[in-house]
Design brief:
Layout lengths: L4 H4 L1 H13 L8 H35 L6 H20 L7 H20 L14 H5 L9
Helix pairs in contact: 3-4, 3-5
Length: about 150
């Protein structure tokens, strides 16, 4: 079976599909793969939200549990992640209802990352996030060191 353009040259396939849409040639669209790609785009946005939250939560945990190492680089990462998450939610407001689930997933990952990056045992970090979503996203919030 010969590979389709979708399988062999995604870039050209995508451009071709865009041209077909512009021309109103809906009967020649690769609808099955277009649907797959649109669904995948939504999934990528959800993953980006969860990944940015994980980085932010990792740095909040490090800030709290390794106060002797607090520095400008951690502060910058925290600020940038908050800004990037806010921008993402502004650009994609449909992600807002996804925040609680993404936050929960992100915290589980952040706990592992914080343990790895600090050399501390994973059990050092609470199983549930010690921060609310609101605290995590607040520009002026930094947890107190332990």
């Amino acid at each position: 079976m010969q590979a389709t353009l979708y399988q062999s040259d995604f870039y050209t396939w995508a451009r071709q599909q865009a041209d077909l849409l512009r021309e109103g040639r809906f009967d020649t669209l690769d609808a099955e793969h277009l649907i797959e790609e649109l669904e995948a785009m939504g999934s990528r946005e959800r993953r980006e939200l969860a990944n940015r939250l994980a980085v932010l939560l990792t740095h909040l945990l490090k800030w709290q549990f390794q106060p002797s190492r607090q520095g400008a680089s951690w502060t910058l990462t925290i600020r940038v992640q908050r800004m990037d998450i806010a921008d993402l939610l502004n650009d994609e407001p449909g992600l807002i209802p996804e925040i609680p689930q993404a936050f929960e997933k992100a915290y589980r990952k952040a706990r592992l990352l914080a343990a790895n990056e600090t050399g501390m045992d994973e059990a050092t970090f609470p199983k549930q996030s010690p921060y609310t979503i609101e605290q995590t996203m607040a520009d002026d919030y930094l947890p107190e060191g332990n």
